[in-house]
Design brief:
Blueprint (H helix, E strand, L loop, with lengths): L1 H7 L2 H18 L17 H13 L10 H23 L2
Length: 93
């Protein structure tokens, strides 16, 4: 595994990918690497983050309108904690 990582990050490998990107991909408006499937899509809501990313890429104005999913998650955690704290205070749970 260590050798695979070394091979991926060798200066020759990186230079070849930059060359391919600059000379082939950008002029032809194609991707350097194929789109891959998400691994473990339920981990930290990756699936929803990917959906939001695709929507925002299609409609760039949404980048300035819709906050990141992380902000929504933080708000939900704070609301849950607030409710839990109230239950403990009033009901002694």
């Amino acid at each position: 595994m260590h050798k695979d990582i070394e091979k991926l990050f060798m200066p020759d490998t990186i230079a070849a990918e930059w060359e391919q990107l600059l000379l082939h991909c950008i002029p032809n408006e194609c991707h350097l690497h194929e789109d891959t499937n998400l691994y473990n899509p339920d981990f930290e809501l990756k699936r929803f983050k990917e959906i939001m990313r695709r929507i925002k890429n299609k409609y760039p104005i949404l980048y300035s309108i819709i906050p990141t999913l992380g902000i929504f998650i933080d708000c939900m955690k704070r609301i849950r904690f607030f409710i839990w704290k109230r239950k403990v205070k009033y009901f002694g749970l």
